[in-house]
Amino acid sequence: MEVVVHYAMTARPDRGPELGALLLDLAGRLATMPGCQGTRTLVDQANPATFVFIEFWASAESQATAGAALGKAVFGAIMQCLDGPPQMRKLSPVPQAPDASAR
C-alpha cells in the first residue's frame, strides 16, 4: 500500500540554511531508492527555520528498506541541525469510492 511520510522540523538558530541543504541532499539520495515515488522539501515563508519534508513511497516496506540502506550518518547530520525531534506522520491516501470520478 502506498505511504506518504511527513516530517515537520525546526532548525537550531543559524542552522536553517545547513538543514535545508541536508534535506535536499537526502531528497537526492532517496530518489535513487527502489519504491521512492518522490519527495518535497519545503520551508515556512514566515519562519525560515521551519521545514517540512515529505516522502512518497510505493509501500511502507520500501520506505523502511531505504532508511536502513542509507544508514545513520545521513540522518545524524540532519539531527544535529534540529532544535528538537522532528514530528513525523505516516499517511495513506483516502480511498475513493468506485464512482467518485463520475462526480
From TrEMBL:
- List the InterPro entries: ABM_dom, Dimeric_a/b-barrel
Q: How far does the signal peptide extend, from start to end residue? A: none
Gene3D superfamilies on file: 3.30.70.100
Q: What class of enzyme is it?
A: oxidoreductase
Q: Where is the ABM domain?
A: 3-94
Q: Which Pfam families match?
A: ABM
Report a single Gene Ontology molecular function: monooxygenase activity
- The question of whether Oxidoreductase is a record keyword is answered with yes
By its UniProt entry, which PROSITE patterns does this protein fall under?
ABM
Sorted alphabetically, the keyword list is: Monooxygenase, Oxidoreductase
Tree of life domain = Bacteria
Give the EC number(s) listed in the UniProt record: 1.-.-.-
The entry's protein name is Quinol monooxygenase
Organism, as annotated:
Novosphingobium bradum
